[in-house]
IPT/TIG domain-containing protein
Amino acid sequence: IGGGTVLLVYGDNLQPYSACQFSATISASKFISSSLISCITPPAESAALIQLTLSHNDGIGTSWISFRYDPVPVVYLPDPSAGPGSGGLPVTIHGENFSDGIGLKCRFGYNEPSPARFISQDAVVCISPPSPPANVTISVSLNGVDYYTASSQFNFQPDLSVKSLFPTFGPTTGNTLVIVRGSFSLGLGGCKFGYVPFMAESISPDEIVCRVPPHRPGVAVVE
């Protein structure tokens, strides 16, 4: 409803003096060809479905289509706020005034926009793209043109890798402290022994310490 959107209007037999009229308001327009003009949407008082008319300089309308004004979306934060540089992580973006449609997209930094999945007026889900390690802005668009940026950034981290751990065995009662060596981020959240996640403590980008949870006898994959 804030206006200012560049709108491309396609038609037939358009003239250099053709103009866009949003309800009773004639907006600035630019003639591109006999089949295309661009218009700047004027502000609206509230969200509504209005009539967009192509008019000549004499004010007589030639044809019209429907145009929808939406409330201005507000984007708060991504959850989680960090992920691997290899991408592929589902990220829930929280905010207000989201709406579903083919133009619903997310953009991480300067990466190409990608489709978003509508959850509710307060949340959409996006898949993070591959990216080098960096803090980037994250934006949401309802129409594929106007993007609104979150107040919090998203952190792309180096991909994790596990090279070794010590000790490699312990009692089934758990509580053993295991040093895991590899390539990690200092913001790493935890380890997983089999299907059981557990908190980790970062020592350096190359070492973390995990406390082993109770587990039945046998071999468990460490992640």
The domain at 74-157 is CATH 2.60.40.10 (Immunoglobulin-like). The mean pLDDT is 83. Residues 82 and 155 are 4 Å apart (CA to CA). The two ends are 48 Å apart (CA to CA).
